[in-house]
Amino acid sequence: GGIITQTPKFLIGQEGQKLTLKCQQNFNHDTMYWYRQDSGKGLRLIYYSITENDLQKGDLSEGYDASREKKSSFSLTVTSAQKNEMAVFLCASSIDSFSNERLFFGHGTKLSVL
Amino acid sequence: GDSVTQTEGPVTVSESESLIINCTYSATSIAYPNLFWYVRYPGEGLQLLLKVITAGQKGSSRGFEATYNKETTSFHLQKASVQESDSAVYYCALGDDGGTGANTGKLTFGHGTILRVHP
After folding, report:
1. Nearest to B49 by CA among B17, B81, B86, B15
2. How many Cβ atoms from other residues are within 10 Å of residue A40's Cβ?
3. Which of A27, A20, A24 is nearest to A2 (CA)?
4. Cα separation of A27 and A104, whole Å?
5. Over the stretch A103-112, which tens digit does the pLDDT of each residue have?
6. Is A99 in CB contact (< 8 Å) with chain B?
7. Cα(A36)–Cα(A42) distance, integer angstroms
């Protein structure tokens, strides 16, 4: 079986700071996703990528950048952290983007902004 | 836009009791929605519980069942007799069939329902 590894597990930032979250998968999956979860809310898609060097905006892409330089990795950058922001960022991958096969998720990165 | 609404939690039940977690969806941009239940057990990552891609069909896994009802736009999760190990957060999700290539397999999730099962 494969695994999705997100780093760091916890991220504490300052207001206005640029913060980068990393995700690695060894499933050899084509498609990778970044979701954000706020307390009491559903997961919202920030960015996804259907192949290396591809980027597609989700519903919540404003304020974020993403990078897919390798098939196995997908990073997300918070361009300017907002004061008192708290959320969990979940990375996921799937075999491809067209069969709607199941997503495999990492354990998440918990962000807190002071 | 597309949306998923599910039972507000936490839901607390005793072991061996029956369970239903409601899920209704609105798929305004998807012609043939696929429906999912994902689950996150304590200390683990989110994982697929069951999936149904055809209206009228039922999916089942680990004793849980859900039927894709296109008429009522619902996909309720049920289990006849829960166990303490079922305590987790359950997410209903809506996806596109991807057949047209115009959309991808990205999912729209509900807010999650915390289930607590007491021994």
Report:
1. B86
2. 9
3. A27
4. 9
5. 899 999 999 9
6. yes
7. 8
Task: Give residue for tokens 């897919």.
Answer: A68
Task: For chain B, say whether A56 makes contact (Cβ under 8 Å).
Answer: yes
User: Which range has the worst mean pLDDT, A40-44, A75-79, A103-107?
Assistant: A40-44
Least confident residue range of A91-100, B44-53, B104-113: A91-100
User: What is the spatial distance between Cα B14 and Cα A70, in angstroms, rounded to a whole number?
Assistant: 47
Beta bridge partners of A30: none
Tell if the CB–CB gap between A42 and B34 is shorter than 8 Å.
Answer: no
Question: What amino acid occupies position B80?
Answer: A
pLDDT, tens only, B54-84: 899 999 999 999 999 999 999 999 999 999 9
Under an 8 A CB cutoff, do B112 and A42 touch?
A: yes
